Amino acid sequence: MRMSMILLQNGRIIDPVNKVDRQGDLIISEGRIHEIGAPGTLHLPDPDGTTFDLSGKWVVPGLIDMHVHLREPGEEYKETIASGTKAAIAGGFTAVACMPNTSPVNDSEAVTSLILEKAEQAKMARVYPVGAVSKNSQGTELAEYGEMKQAGVVALSDDGRPVANSQLMRRALEYSSSHNLLLISHSEEMSLSENGAMNEGALSTRLGLRGIPHVAEEIMVYRDIAMADYLELPIHIAHISTKETVDLIRRAKRNGSLVTSETTPHYFSLTEEAIDQYDTRAKMNPPLRTAEDMKAIREGLRDGTIDAIATDHAPHSNMEKDLEFELAANGIIGLETSVPLTMNLVRENILTPSQMITLMSVHPARILGVEGGSLAAGATADVTVIDPDKKFVYTKDSIVSKSGNSPFIDREMQGKAVLTVVGGEIVFEELG
Amino acid sequence: MEMETEYCFRHKHILGLENLSTDDISFILQTAESFREISTRPIKKVPILRGKTIINLFFEPSTRTRLSFEIAAKRMSADTFNISASTSSATKGETLVDTALNLQAMNPDAIIIRHSHSGSPHLLTKHINASIINAGDGFHEHPSQGLLDLMTVKQKKGKIEGLKIAIIGDISHSRVAHSNIIGFSKMGAQVYVSGPATLLPPGIEQLGAKACRSIEEAVTDADVVMALRIQKERQLDPLIPSLREYANFFGVTNKLLEKSKPDAIVMHPGPMNRGIEIDPAIADGPRSVILEQVTNGVAVRMALLYLILGGSEQ
ω before B269 within 30° of 0 (cis)? Predict the structure, then answer.
């Protein structure tokens, strides 16, 4: 941890909020962005400061992952707040929003406070707790939003399961608006998806696995948007995975709905084919879909229908994964692969670098209502430096997260976070 | 044998017909034919697999398949051991991988597994050295059943290529149907499937079958009509309203068989629900080859065990 001034020289500064995308120098001082100038024009007044020559690298507002599972409290053998935030900074994230499906569920001030305390001790990425929509995420009674908000939650979700009861969803949307908290919906019609292990279609038939039809997602997305529209309130749809969901959200936005949405790198990088011979590392919920869905997700990112890229980082140990496919747990880790996988879309000219940063920093900050997403002078110095050319193989041994459940292991990657600065402090550095 | 001299059976495991080539299937069927005679001898035993250890690891109840594998192994002098779910560690919470590693530690040559979860045999191959034979996994495949059905049809019809095979019933939850669709279409037959739409899975045509809305269409001019077991618990899942209605509208009856070829044969993988998916008069009638399927099952399983365990020493 270095508290002195930092000069980032000659990088490509990409700051979409301030319409900046050019070479330049940037000085960080006392935890804030101090000054931005033309390349080679800025100098540190303080001789103890640190200077980095970032030619060929991107200097961007700190990336924010608005959907992760840190597993603490309760499942510390999979991940802890310390290990998860260490994985986050290694992946270029200066902040993460952690879902409440821990044990106990984060439906209270006490659990929220515990999470924030652990995050404070870890001193890595910022942690924004998401509180439960319903008590114990059981879907029957409202949780105490006011008290959780006072303790520090930034949004509400019963992620991992849907709010199945429509009346409860209505009341949750209404009551969350009283506390100015966003509701993040895990949209899934359980009566259609229950017992399913993968996307329903020709491949699930061939593998003999019970399928999850894509309409199980879309029916609930439709309900959620209809409900939010009726109440004229915002709603955020988590981890969208299907073509029809993208179409629904596109239409809703055109009609003035206050809906926002996120997708994950796996939905734009993989199809159900990744399951191959029952590879449980490719099992998650919603499941990997078809090439057509993947294409639609990419188009949704390109045209702005989808607002954010989140990882749904979901650590599991071998005990949950080295099982019969249908018995294995859902979820993959994602914090350390999100940047290179999204860079693939930049290299394929689906996204501009500026769009990528909007999806991974600007919008997550805006949707959650948290600081960040800007490199304006005076802003908090959460900064990520990305080397767009850096190639590496994502090996099992290199994983920082406590768990290794990723379908991307042993893949060649290009593009990597090489410097992560949180509040003006260097928390991760891999330059050189 | 009429195979190309280059041909060599190279599989260590039998996981499904999807992994076997047409040459593999032909070779297995030829090998099975040559073994059929052993079961008709007064002394039904040959020493081909003497000293080999074969474990039957059955996590689902089975009479026919387990016994058939055991008889096949014993007629070839292998030592066989049966583990069924009631006596296994599964009920004590041991994982499948741990069970398999413990079996592996006793150095068996082959493990024959039946399991309610698709892909369980594949999971074993990732962890242990013994050969794995899939004796039915979930809704995925039941390769030895598919092979014995191919063998039976070939005996009765003299060929497989060009035949029309109709499979009627619960296609969604039938590993037998899946192996048969793959096997028969690979060998050049046309496979038609039908049943209530609730029991026809999406994308079944990509396995090689043509799905028909009416069972009459499926059996029209068929050379082979196969009825599948309807599982009684399917009524609970809202898939069929009642067994009575199922029998009336989707059962294989004499009236239905008027649409098929006059010399069509009728098959059933067993166990049968008489009077539900198949009219008892047909099951016991001249078209039925149901018991020949069972006889051929032993020969096919002898062939599989021989090709996997004994081939190199011959």
Answer: no
Query: Is A224 an active-site residue?
Result: no
Q: For all residues of chain A together, what is the average pLDDT?
A: 97
B251 token code pair = 């059962």
- Quote the DSSP letter at residue A328: S
- Contact residues on chain B for A326, CB-CB shorter than 8 A: 117-119, 138
Please give the distance of CA A75 from its chain centroid, rounded to a whole number: 20
3-state secondary structure of A110: helix
- Domain at A6-59+379-429, CATH from 2.170.130.10, 2.30.40.10, 3.30.460.10, 2.60.120.260: 2.30.40.10
ipTM: 0.93
| DSSP letter assigned to residue A264 | -
Mutate to test the interface with A, among B101, B117, B171, B233 (most CBs of A within 10 A): B117
Q: Where is pLDDT greater, at A348 or B1?
A: A348
Torsion angle, alpha carbons of A185, A186, A190, A194, to 10: -170
- How distant, in Å, are the alpha carbons of A206, B267, B269 from that of B229? 19, 11, 8
Secondary structure class of A191 (helix, strand, coil) = helix
Per-window interface: A 278-297 vs B, CB < 8 A: 278
Domains and CATH numbers, chain B: 17-142+294-313 (3.40.50.1370), 145-288 (3.40.50.1370)
Domain ranges of chain A: 6-59+379-429, 62-368
The alpha-helical segments, DSSP class H, found in A123-272 are: 145-151, 166-178, 190-193, 202-207, 215-231, 243-254, 265-269
Q: A396: which residues sit within 8 A by CB, 6+ positions away?
A: A404, A409, A410
Of B11, B36, B64, B74, the active-site residue reads: B64
Average model confidence (pLDDT) across chain B: 93
Record: contact B203-A207, CB cut-off 8 A? no
Same fold, A6-59+379-429 and A62-368: no
DSSP A361: I
Q: Does A322 touch chain B (CB under 8 A)?
A: yes
Check if the beta carbon of residue A176 is closer than 8 Å to that of residue A145. Answer: yes
pLDDT digits (tens, 9 = 90+) for B188-240: 999 999 999 999 999 999 999 999 999 999 999 999 999 999 987 766 678 99
Nearest 5°: CA angle at A38, between A37 and A43? 60
What pLDDT does residue A231 have? 98
For domain A62-368, say whether CATH 3.20.10.10 is its number: no
Interface contact A226, partner B, CB < 8 A: no
Cα dihedral value B51, B52, B53, B55, nearest 10:
-150
Please indicate whether residue B229 is annotated as part of the active site: no
Annotation says B142 is catalytic: yes
Catalytic one of A159, A224, A312, A387: A312
Cα–Cα separations (whole angstroms), residue B101 to A44, A212, B13, B125, B127? 62, 32, 17, 11, 7
Can you say how many angstroms the Cα of residue A293 is from the centroid of all Cα atoms in its chain?
Answer: 20
The pairing of beta strand B53-58 with beta strand A235-237: unpaired
In this prediction the pTM is 0.94
The whole-angstrom distance between B78's CA and the closest CA on chain A is 29
**Distance between B180 CA and the closest CA of chain A, angstroms:** 12
Question: Mean pLDDT, to the nearest integer, of A181-202?
Answer: 97
pLDDT tens digits, A9-54: 999 999 999 999 999 999 999 999 999 999 999 999 877 899 999 9
Average pLDDT over residues B49-60: 95
